[in-house]
Amino acid sequence: MSSGSKRLKNLQICRPFVYGNMAVPLKEDRSPDIPADHTHSWTVFLKGVNGDDLSSFVKRVVFKLHETYPNSSRSIEEPPFEVTETGWGEFEISVRVYFVPEASEKNVVMYHHLKLHPYGPEAEQQKSEGATVTSMQYDEFVFNEPTEALFEILTKKSGAVLPQQKSTLVPFSVQSENEELDRLSDAHVKVQENIRRLTERMHALEREKAALRPL
Ligand code: SLL
Question: Which domain of life is it from (predicted)?
Answer without folding.
Answer: Eukaryota
